[in-house]
């Protein structure tokens, strides 16, 4: 990883490999890179040397805007995936716990937006 990117200290259980990085720009929160995975092989997460770019909406001081993803869009993608995976391999306890957490995140996003609007 070069100095244009910073590895985040997050790992995905049970791996200890850092698989998420962020572009080192003025905000360091607008463009993320996530290593692709082959899933679990021999009870280990297998990552490959290929990444997915996640560009978020970015506002510049000169009032320009770079189009990108919203956090809420990612949450709805995760919710849809949780529901569909639960349909394949039902486990209502795990599914409801994940969905409850994602719904709480969406509530916090709404509070954040309301706060921005009311400034």
Helix residue percentage: 25-40%
Percent of sequence in beta strands: 25-35%
Tell me the Rg in angstroms: 17 Å
How many H/I helical runs? Answer: 2
**Total E-strand runs:** 6
Q: What is the average per-residue confidence, as pLDDT, rounded to a whole number?
A: 93
Q: Major sheet: order of its strands?
A: 1-2-3-4
Oligomer class: single chain
Low-pLDDT segments: none
Structural shape: flat
Characterise the protein shown here.
A hairpin with a 2-residue loop joins strand 3 (31-41) and strand 4 (44-55). Strands 1-2-3-4 form a four-stranded antiparallel β-sheet, with no helix packed on it. It has helices at 71-88, 92-117, and strands spanning 5-7, 20-23, 31-41, 44-55, 58-59, 65-66. The relative contact order is 0.09. The model has no long low-confidence stretch (mean pLDDT 93). The chain is built from two helices and six strands; from the N terminus they run ββββββαα.
Which features characterize this protein?
alpha+beta, two-stranded antiparallel sheet, 37% helix
Brief summary:
By secondary structure, this protein is of the alpha+beta class. The chain has helices spanning about 70-90, 90-115; strands at about 5, 20-25, 30-40, 45-55, 60, 65.
Task: Give a topology summary.
Blueprint: E1 5-7, E2 20-23, E3 31-41, E4 44-55, E5 58-59, E6 65-66, H1 71-88, H2 92-117
Antiparallel strand pairs: 1-2, 2-3, 3-4, 5-6
Helix pairs in contact: 1-2
